[in-house]
Design a protein that fits this description.
Helices cover about 30% and strands about 25% of the residues. The chain is an alpha/beta fold and about 270 residues long. The strands form three sheets. Strands 5-4-1-6-11-8-12-10-9 form a nine-stranded mixed β-sheet, with helices on both faces. Bound molecules: uridine 5'-triphosphate. Uridine 5'-triphosphate binds next to α5.
Length: about 270
């Protein structure tokens, strides 16, 4: 299965830090966030890791390109461990497609449609870290158990926070697995169907890609992935895997990035 990593957004919530540095390149420890995401996709045996990039965010491509000169300089100084880390980042197999304008997450995912073709595919948000690398394999298990259905990861949050996220409706069919009946982007508190928010890892059927091709803009004028998920549920089953806060970390705001560094650097 191919893995699509959208990373072409503007990162406005982290300005001015993200004026010249992509938010996916901000460090957690000694690695940029997006390297964790690529490594997670590879750990899940993705056949190809496709980063959806903006043409303005060249630093992402530079990070995954080999740098023989830097490596040789480090080796010349006896700094082999650092040279190895540089060589590793430059050897990770990633490919790039471009989103020319940040028209929304759904639009970004669709930019990889020629590569995903008629197959199911993973989507991993480029600013979300899953340290244990276990989430995608568990989602795959749920999908396999339900005839290849789409599966998304969801996180329970305090009710007053739901209005900032995509929120699912459905029923729990086994511990920690919900059969979904709906999904809504940034609902008003009184309209939220649950406290389970869409977290940033998706295993999606190829029908989602087809629907995205004609998806109209939704909340915020953006082409929303959640709208295509709502549409596909009229045709296909979809499931949600409930995760716990320690399984994944958003880094898209100053507060969440700081909390992620604090949590991951403790161990
Ligand atoms: P976010 O909504 O967190 O990213 O999307 P953003 O739009 O860059 O952030 P703000 O709201 O302006 O601060 C999650 C992921 O999807 C990508 C982002 O780069 C991020 O990694 N994305 C988002 C795209 O690739 N294209 C888009 O049009 C929107």
């Amino acid at each position: 299965m191919k893995a699509v990593i959208p990373a072409a957004g503007m990162g406005t919530r982290f300005l001015p830090a993200t004026k010249a540095i992509p938010k996916e390149m901000l460090p957690v420890g000694n690695k940029p966030v997006i390297q964790y995401v690529v490594e997670e996709a590879l750990a899940a045996s993705a056949d190809e890791v496709i980063i959806v990039n903006s043409r303005e965010k060249k630093a992402i491509e530079a990070h995954f390109a080999p740098d023989a000169e830097l490596e040789a300089t480090l080796r010349g100084k006896g700094k082999d461990a650092l040279a190895d880390s540089v060589a590793h980042a430059g050897s990770l197999p990633v490919s790039f497609v471009y989103q020319d304008e940040p028209l929304g997450l759904g639009h970004a995912a669709h930019c990889a449609s020629e590569k995903t073709g008629n197959d199911a595919f993973y989507v991993l948000l480029g600013d979300v870290i899953v340290p244990g690398n276990e989430m995608l394999p568990r989602m795959k298990e749920v999908s396999d158990a339900h005839g290849g259905a789409s599966v998304i990861a969801v996180l329970p949050v305090p009710e007053e926070e739901v209005s900032r996220f995509g929120v699912i409706a459905g029923v729990e069919v086994e511990p920690g697995v919900w059969k979904m009946s709906g999904i809504v982007e940034k609902p008003a508190l009184e309209d939220a169907p649950s406290n389970l928010i869409v977290f940033g890892r998706y295993l999606l059927s190829p029908r989602v890609m087809e629907l995205l091709a004609n998806q109209a803009p939704g909340v915020g004028g953006e082409i929303q992935l959640t709208d295509a998920l709502e549409a596909v549920m009229a045709e296909e089953e979809m499931y949600a895997l409930v995760i716990s806060p320690s399984e994944g970390y958003d880094t898209g705001t100053v507060e969440s990035w700081f909390a992620t560094n604090a949590a991951l650097m403790q161990g």
